[in-house]
Design a protein that fits this description.
The protein is an alpha+beta fold. The chain is elongated and about 150 Å long. The chain has 4 domains: 2-90, no CATH class; 96-184, Beta-Lactamase (2-Layer Sandwich); 188-259, Orthogonal Bundle (Helix Hairpins); 268-417, Histidine kinase-like ATPase, C-terminal domain (Heat Shock Protein 90, 2-Layer Sandwich), CATH 3.30.565.10. It has a 5-stranded antiparallel β-sheet, sandwiched between helices. The protein has a 5-stranded mixed β-sheet with strand order 7-9-10-12-11, covered by helices on one side. It has helices at 2-16, 20-48, 59-94, 114-120, 132-135, 139-146, 186-221, 228-259, 271-281, 305-321, 353-356, 380-390, and strands at residues 99-103, 109-112, 153-157, 165-172, 178-184, 268-269, 290-295, 300-302, 328-336, 339-346, 394-400, 404-412, 416-417. Helices cover 50% and strands 18% of the residues.
Length: 421
């Protein structure tokens, strides 16, 4: 409004001197100069945050001051709220017993909590911006953070304290970020080692007494002077003694596998020939299902042949145990770009989904009502799992009640002999 009045005054003065256009032009130039001066002062006020000249007044500059003051006050409140929220988040994450490390798309550390500093030996300010695999130098950790599978976790030795163990996993977090989690599992690992050592030692110590007992029972059963009423009890005791010796042998083998490192790559296994060898030597009884084979490649597997043979024997024993005579069992060895698969598939009774994740536990049996003579002791699949772990492989189990089961052993390409195809 003031500018319009100023221009009108200029036009009137010019009209008075018979120079209306000239008066209007001079007034416009003076108004433009004044507005330019105000613009420069406003820019200086934005830099110095001193708006005293614009705090009171009229026109657009006072409106601009009000708008800027409102936006800055709102930004200050939001910044304060964000700062308070960030403090609370830091307090809550620092209170967590598990370590949490935020990584960007290049696996560089964005932030971490106090537990990550304690468990992983990180320096929260100094290590920010550093690649995590350059600080925690472990091949398994590097493979974990570079993998796209967020379901897996690994256990590694603590980089800070000897004898301690950490469980590590990665979960998606934010946009192009991920969260690396650390958990102290030292107690669980120690308990597991104590359990394995106890089973191994107990199995070793029990083997000698059982051998003696079995020898005496065998002698009694062959004694012609044994009273008739003792023949059946002695035979039953001998049978149970042999069963206990078999269980101890399996337990000792399982303990060996649990404490062993990764199997070497030196031995090349002809899986097709191994399948035929196992089928030839596998004890068969009348009324069992037929077994067919499907070997579509000659690719050889690098590892321990005796251990892979035990995988086949245990999987086939399970399939025979739970498949009726009119059913079928198929063993296959196939190869693709990602690796190779050893599959044992049957048309047996199947397994309910709720039991699948527990099948590789020690002594776990789906149908506990079955006689021990009819079913296994629940150690076969545990051995299968540990053998596959030693060979960098995975066990994929799929089954439906009444539709059979499929046990797929998936070996990575690094475990295949590329010189033979």
């Amino acid at each position: 409004m003031s500018l319009l009045l100023f221009l009108l005054l200029g036009a009137l003065i010019g009209w008075y001197y018979d120079r209306t256009i000239t008066g209007l032009l001079i007034a416009s130039l003076l108004g433009l100069a004044w507005q330019t001066r105000q613009l420069l002062q406003f820019e200086r006020a934005l830099r110095t945050d001193n708006f005293d000249k614009f705090r009171y007044g009229e026109g657009i500059w006072e409106q601009l001051f009000s708008r800027v003051r409102f936006d800055r006050e709102r930004g200050r409140r939001r910044k304060e709220a964000y700062r308070n929220l960030l403090k609370e988040v830091r307090k809550s994450t620092d209170a967590m017993p598990d370590g949490a490390i935020i990584l960007n798309s290049r696996n560089e550390i964005v932030a971490c909590n106090r537990a990550a500093s304690v468990l992983g030996g990180l320096k929260r300010k100094k290590d920010r911006g550093q690649r995590l695999d350059n600080i925690l130098r472990d091949q398994s950790i590097s493979a974990l953070i570079n993998a796209s599978n967020f379901d897996q976790s690994i256990e590694v030795a603590s980089p800070v304290r000897d004898g301690d163990w950490l469980n590590c996993r990665v979960v998606p977090y934010g946009v192009d970020q991920k969260l690396f989690l650390l958990r102290d599992v030292t107690e669980r690992v120690r308990l597991g080692k104590m359990r394995r050592d106890f089973v191994a030692n107990a199995s070793h110590e029990l083997r000698s007494p059982l051998t003696v007992i079995g020898g005496y029972l065998e002698a009694l059963s062959d004694d012609d002077e044994l009273p008739p009423q003792w023949e059946k009890p002695v035979q039953q005791m001998r049978s149970q003694s042999e069963r206990m010796q078999q269980i101890l042998a399996v337990l000792m083998e399982l303990s060996r596998l649990e404490n062993a490192t990764s199997a070497s790559h030196e031995e090349a296994i002809d899986v097709g020939s191994l399948i035929n060898k196992v089928l030839t030597s596998l004890p068969r009884q009348p009324g069992q299902a037929d077994i067919s084979t499907k070997v579509t490649c000659s690719t050889q597997l690098l590892g321990r042949e005796a251990e892979i043979e035990s995988v086949l024997v245990n999987l086939l024993a399970n399939a025979l145990r739970y498949t009726s005579a009119d059913g079928s069992i198929n063993v296959s060895w196939t190869h693709d770009t990602d690796g190779a698969s050893l599959v044992v598939e049957d048309t047996g009774i199947g397994i309910e989904a709720e039991h699948l994740h527990r099948l590789t536990e020690r002594f776990f049996r789906v149908d506990r009502g079955r006689s021990r003579d009819d079913g296994g002791v629940g150690l076969g699949l545990a051995i299968v799992k540990h053998v596959l772990v030693r060979h960098d492989a995975e066990l994929d189990i799929r089954s439906e009640p009444g539709s059979g089961s499929c046990f797929r052993c998936v070996f990575p390409a690094s475990r295949l002999d590329k010189s033979v195809s």
